[in-house]
Amino acid sequence: MSTNLITLPIIIPMLTAIICMFLHGRDIRLQRVVAGISALVSLGVGVCIFSRVIDGETVLVFTASGWAAPFGIVLAADLLSAIMVTMVSLVSIACLYFSFVSLDSAREENYFYPVWFCIMMGVNGSFVTGDIFNLYVMFEIMLMASYVLCVLGCSHGQLRESFKYLIVNMLSSTIFVIALALLYGMMGTLNMADLSAKIATLEDQSLVTVCAMIFFVVFGLKGAVFPLYFWLPRTYVEPPAPIAAMFGGVLTKVGVYSMIRVFTLIFVGNVAYTHNIILIVAALTMMLGVFGAVSQFNFKRILSIHIISQVGYMIMGLGLYTVWGLAGSILHIVHNMVVKTGLFLFEGATEEITGTGELKNMGGLLSKYPWLGWGFLAAAMSLAGVPPLSGFFSKFVLLRASVEADNYWIMAAALITGFFTLFSMVKIFFYTFWGEPKPLPEKAATINYGKLLPSCFMLVLVSVGLGVASQPVIEIAMRAATQLMNPEIYINAVMAVPGIRG
Amino acid sequence: MELLISILIGILFAIGTYMMLSRKLLRIIIGSAFMSHGTLLMLMTVGKLKRGAPPIVVNGVENPVYVDPIPQALILTAIVIGFATTAFALVLAYRCYQELGVDDTERMRGNFDEH
Q1: Cα–Cα dist B68/B74, whole Å
Q2: Environment class of residue A407 by beta-carbon count within 10 Å: exposed (0-12), middle (13-18) or buried (19+)?
Q3: What is the pLDDT of residues A413-439, one digit of tens each?
Q4: Contact predicate A211/A195, CB 8 Å
Q5: Which of A38, A363, A404, B89 could crosslink A435 through cysteines, CB 3.0-4.6 Å?
Q6: How many Å apart are CA A273 and CA B17, to the nearest integer?
Q7: In this structure, is residue B61 part of a structural domain?
Q8: How distant is the Cα of A474 from the closest Cα of chain B, in angstroms?
Q9: Which of A133, A156, A163 has its CB closest to that of B92?
Q10: End-to-end alpha-carbon separation of chain B, Å?
């Protein structure tokens, strides 16, 4: 179905970024109002797209200037894209509210909101693009803005880590272009639907498999899979909480989303080889990520290392390559986006009060700040996978998928990882909120911590909601997964849109 | 011609890799610029290097030899992106040098446990 609706997730953040840029130097509240309205409108658009594709059959397509695929630039949104766009807008609202109340004015007034919406534009663009070169362009928009957000404030740690982050991503962009060049040289097209249809007719898949593995490296670097996650824990620790929450909650998921997209639509000719590698990498990512977190004693660092182990779960479903597996992956992405962002925001609120991130310098916060403590516990239990929170159901679906595929070793890896996740979450709760109260800095008494909590609790409630309503949520994820397993739905929808042809 | 260009791409990549493995910030950035030029040439080469007419159909007659326009469009986009990223990297490196007083990655490594 052809529609202009799916250009809005790109256009709205772009316009907001431009408007906020012109409001620079005026009262900061003007920028806040514009940013808030834009985030709400984006959520509305996301829900609107979601409701149009919820049946799992429709794919919304937009052809630029009426040039039909594969000649023109195509945007396409299926159920997975719609879910991602909606969830990202939701998470963005929570992070924005948290930055309204907590970000220092030096950062906030120095082009924070324009850069923020540039990231949103890149992220949403990656979700709705139907052309693999435009995926590269959208990635670059997102990365460029994320470099700026990462270094905003210019503390020594931020400068040091941003430089590494920048170089790693420049390298991965170079590899991305190489992969695109190989793919174009082979197939003569870069439209994802057209690529998928053409690759399916190829006799010899060997060069395609090479290309697939290069793409796996590229998206693995962005999504932080084993052994390409080395840059992540240090980089995500440095920026302030709302930015770290956005990075941890959203940016790695864009890499995982792209991986799911290309490995279900384009590179499905040699599943026994490629998807098995993904599965092994998933197990290693999970285990090493969680073991890395166990040894740490810094609140934020534990959370950022946990991002890695959670990415392992997300690509585990892709590696299994069954409807249940993909549904589990989608559920886990959605769950993790919400909960990981929430945890980072709780960390931000705790650090605001205690003035430190080291677990050993905190203690006994529960008596003074009960809402903070119990709220954090709910989010942490959701991450560890305790029912009835959303983490339980996403892991349940993934485990069920591995049993159905007779893959018990990956199931064991997932269960062990879950156990250690629980361990390090309890460790944080134990050190920070239980025990003898440690002396708080003097400014702690002046902080109105109530205003920090609404965005954290919004995300906890979403997690509870996803868990309690798991029946329809799993149903929708299954539909999205079925759609991914039948790429001809996507191909037919994109190629069927009438327009100018050559 | 393709062979010559392929060798050139290889040389550019070798230089780029060598520079990126060094410890000076500036060399790393220049190395990555070399690499991105290598990839751009590669994009051009996969579209086949040939001389011919523009890919335009005149009076319903298709040109038998025409140049593929898409790699050129892709290269233009990639050049702009590479330019912007390199510019940002240079500014960041300069700021690092100002704030941290070193341009050596080994000495700016810092300790994981310090904040």
Answers
A1: 11
A2: buried
A3: 999 999 999 999 999 998 888 888 887
A4: no
A5: A363
A6: 29
A7: no
A8: 40
A9: A163
A10: 54
Residue in this structure with the two tokens 């042809």, named with its chain if needed: A501
The DSSP string of A69-117 is: TTTS-EEEE-HHHHHHHHHHHHHHHHHHHHHHHHS-HHHHTTTHHHHHH
Contacts of B47 in chain A (CB under 8 A): 184-185
| Helices of type H across A266-369 | 271-294, 299-320, 323-354, 365-368
Q: How far apart are CA A262 and CA A326, in angstroms?
A: 13
B93–chain A Cβ distance below 8 A for any pair: yes
In a domain, B60, yes or no: no
| Residue entry with tokens 């892991």 | A395
Asked if A174 and B78 come within 8 Å (Cβ–Cβ), the reply is no
Q: What is the CATH number of the domain that holds B79?
A: 1.10.287
Q: Output the CA torsion sign for A168, A174, A176, A182.
A: negative
CA distances (Å), origin A316, targets A278, A321, A410, A420, A424: 7, 9, 8, 18, 22
What is residue B1's DSSP assignment? -
Transcribe A178-243 into DSSP letters. HHHHHHHHHHS--BHHHHHHHHHT-S--HHHHHHHHHHHHHHHHHHT-TTS-TTHHHHHHSS-HHH
Note down the domain range covering B37: 2-51+68-100
Sketch the domain layout of chain A as residue ranges. 5-496
The string of pLDDT tens digits covering residues B19-77 is: 999 988 999 999 999 999 999 999 888 877 777 777 777 777 777 777 888 888 899 99
In a domain, B63, yes or no: no
What's the full length of chain B, in residues?
A: 115
Determine the distance in angstroms separating the CA of B53 from the nearest CA of chain A, rounded to an integer.
Answer: 17
